[in-house]
Amino acid sequence: MRSVFTLILILVAIAVQGPLLAPYDPTQINIPNRLSAPNSTWLLGTDALGRDILSRLLYGARWSLGLAFVISVIGLVIGATVGLIAALGGKVADWLAMRATDTFLAFPDLIAAVVIAGVLGAGTGSLIFALTVTGWMRYARVARGIGLSLTSRGYVVQARLAGLSPLVIAWRHYLPSLLPSLAVVWTGMFARAILGISALGFLGFGVQPPIPEWGTMLLDARIHMRSTPLQMIWPGLAVVTCVLAINLVGDALRDALARQDRTE
C-alpha cells in the first residue's frame, strides 16, 4: 500500500511542478519534426504539430488533476450540505432533498455532463459546472444516511436539549463522524472527475486548445491513431494510472474504516 501512496505523491508533485519539469514549451509548434518517434531529444515523441508530448503531459497533469480536485471538492461541499439538511431539517426537508438527489441520479452522469456542457458551450467553466452538477449526489446520500444514524445518539440528544443550533450540532457532532466515509467517497469521485474531464475534452467540450489537457491530447491524436498510436497511448496511460492509483487509495481507506468499525 505504501507504493500506492508513493505513486499518489508523485502524481501530485507532477501536477504541481509539471511546468518546471517540462523540457519544452508545450505549445511550441515544430512542423519539421511532427510525428517524431520517441528519441533522445523528444523522449515520448512529438504530435501532429511537432509539440513535445512529454511536456504536454506534464503541463496537462496540472489541468486534469487540478480541475478534478476542484470539481470533487465542490461536489463534496454541496453533497454534504444537502445530506445534512436532509438529516437535520425534518421530514419535509428530507423529502425535498432526497427527491432532488434522486432526480439528478436518474440521469447518467456523463451523458448529463455532455448535455450541460453542450448547452453552455465548450470551456473550462462549463466543464467545472457540468461535472459538479452531476457529481454531488453520492455525497448527499452518504451524509444523509450517517446523519440519520446519529440523530438518536446520546451526545446529539444532549446537544439539542442544551439549546445548540442545528448548525453548531452539525459542525461539532456530525461532521467528525461523516468525514471518514466522505473521504472514501471523495477518492472515487476524484477518479470519476478525471475520467469526466478527459471524456469531455475528447469530445471537444472541455479545456480548449492550445492548453494541453489529457482529453484534448487524445482528441488531437485520434486521426493519427493508426499511423502513430503512441500519441494516444501516452495520455491514455496517464489517465489510467491516475484513476487506478486513486481508486486503490480509496479501497485502502475503506478497508481501514471497516477494520476500525469492527474494533469499536
What does this structure look like?
The chain has helices at 2-21, 53-88, 90-105, 109-120, 124-133, 137-150, 154-161, 166-202, 214-221, 230-263. It is mainly α. The protein has a single domain, classed as MetI-like (MetI-like fold, Orthogonal Bundle), CATH 1.10.3720. The two termini are 24 Å apart.
The helix/strand class is: mainly alpha
Query: What is the oligomer described by this structure?
Result: single chain
Catalogue the unreliable spans. Answer: none
The CATH superfamily turns out to be MetI-like
**What composes the largest sheet?**
none
Q: Would you count the extended β strands for me?
A: 0
- Level of helix content? over 70%
> Could you tell me the mean pLDDT?
85
Radius of gyration: 22 Å
Strand content: under 5%
What distance lies between the first and last C-alpha atoms, to the nearest angstrom?
24 Å
Total number of domains:
1
Q: Would you identify the CATH architecture?
A: Orthogonal Bundle
**What is the CATH class?**
Mainly Alpha
Alpha plus pi helix count: 10
Shape: elongated
Q: H/E element string? A: HHHHHHHHHH
| CATH fold-level assignment | MetI-like fold
List the defining traits of the structure above.
single chain; mainly alpha; MetI-like fold
Summary of the model, kept short:
The protein has 264 residues and is mostly helical. Helices cover 74% and strands 0% of the residues.
